[in-house]
């Protein structure tokens, strides 16, 4: 084993001054930003980057970093009427993408390098609390476990709340036309046409703007193009979201180059149900082949 350790970085790529941690386990490495608790890089071997980070990503002035694995919590997308009955101006994808997280624990062992981050949030909308609960600051935790063959991300909250969450992973791809995601369910909500659809199989391909919520997906998805294959294990989810903005949206996003959409697809493990207040335990594991 050449190297097992955790080091601090100040800045990553073009994101100058960004406080980050770099985890190393043998040949494998991962970088996580304390701003957003966001994994920005996962390289199972040196130079083999699996995650996409926009060349135009920003983090100053409250921006959410475009790429890596944003943490969406305690709601996903625009806050729904249940979470935001008074239609307050709330940010897309929740409250923690542009806040600083703390390091709680880090550890290197014979089998892995891991770090636990957390953030305390004390400005949750009242609608998230069960009727009989008294509002208090809430702790959200993210654990990263890097081993020789995989990276696991565990997002947890021990407070029962009406809460949604997603690990919104941006995966770097070589050839969008050849890219497929399989293992999906055969029923999805299409955010582009704003309608539910049935799919003839469990597969998504990319030939136009794609923004789909697949319900009740199983525990294993596969992302492949003609050059690489990745298994994505998930637990604690009730849906998986597939997103590619395509040309027009890519042009409209200030933190994405016009051709940015050709370089990634998002495969997101999400917990979206709001039927009852629940704890959160959402896991996504990336296993390259
Ligand atoms: O621009 P944001 O807030 O990072 O969101 C990006 C995309 O995130 C996806 O998860 C959503 O399904 C899309 O609708 C959304 O456009």
Automatic annotation (TrEMBL):
Instruction: Please indicate if the UniProt record lists Transmembrane helix as a keyword.
Output: no
Which SUPFAM superfamilies does UniProt cross-reference here? Galactose mutarotase-like
> CDD domains from the entry?
D-hex-6-P-epi_like
- Active site as annotated: 168, 268
What is catalysed by this protein? alpha-D-glucose 6-phosphate = beta-D-glucose 6-phosphate
GO biological processes: carbohydrate metabolic process
Name the UniProt key words of this record, in alphabetical order.
Isomerase
E.C. number(s) listed in UniProt: 5.1.3.15
Listed GO MF terms: carbohydrate binding; glucose-6-phosphate 1-epimerase activity
Which enzyme class, named as a word?
Answer: isomerase
Q: Which InterPro entries match?
A: Aldose_1/G6P_1-epimerase, G6P_1-epimerase, Gal_mutarotase_sf_dom, GH-type_carb-bd
What's the family?
Belongs to the glucose-6-phosphate 1-epimerase family.
> Could you tell me what this protein is called?
Putative glucose-6-phosphate 1-epimerase
Which organism encodes this protein?
Answer: Arsukibacterium tuosuense
């Amino acid at each position: 084993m050449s190297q097992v350790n955790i080091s601090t970085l100040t800045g990553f790529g073009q994101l100058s001054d960004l406080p980050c941690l770099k985890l190393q386990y043998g040949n494998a490495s991962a970088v996580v930003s304390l701003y957003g608790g966001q994994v920005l890089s996962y390289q199972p071997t040196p130079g083999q980057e699996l995650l996409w980070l926009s060349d135009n990503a920003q983090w100053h002035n409250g921006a959410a970093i475009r790429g890596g694995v944003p943490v969406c919590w305690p709601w996903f997308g625009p806050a729904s009427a249940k979470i935001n009955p008074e239609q307050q101006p709330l940010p897309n994808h929740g409250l923690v993408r542009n806040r600083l997280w703390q390091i709680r624990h880090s550890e290197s062992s014979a089998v892995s390098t891991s770090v636990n981050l957390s953030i305390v949030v004390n400005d949750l909308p009242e609608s998230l609390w069960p009727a009989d609960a008294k509002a208090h600051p809430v702790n959200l935790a993210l654990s990263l476990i890097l081993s020789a063959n995989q990276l696991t991300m565990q997002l947890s909250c021990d407070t029962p709340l009406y809460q949604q969450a997603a690990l919104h992973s941006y995966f770097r791809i070589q050839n969008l036309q050849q890219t497929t995601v399989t293992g999906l369910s055969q029923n999805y909500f299409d955010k582009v046409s704003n309608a539910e659809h049935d799919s003839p199989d469990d597969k998504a391909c990319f030939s136009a703007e794609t923004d789909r919520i697949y319900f009740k997906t199983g525990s294993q998805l596969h992302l492949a193009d003609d050059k690489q294959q990745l298994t994505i294990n998930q637990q604690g989810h009730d849906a998986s979201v597939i997103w590619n903005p395509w040309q027009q949206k890519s042009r409209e996003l200030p933190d994405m180059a016009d051709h940015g959409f050709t370089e990634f697809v998002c495969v997101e493990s999400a917990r979206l149900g709001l039927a009852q207040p629940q704890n959160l335990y959402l896991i996504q594991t990336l296993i390259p082949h």
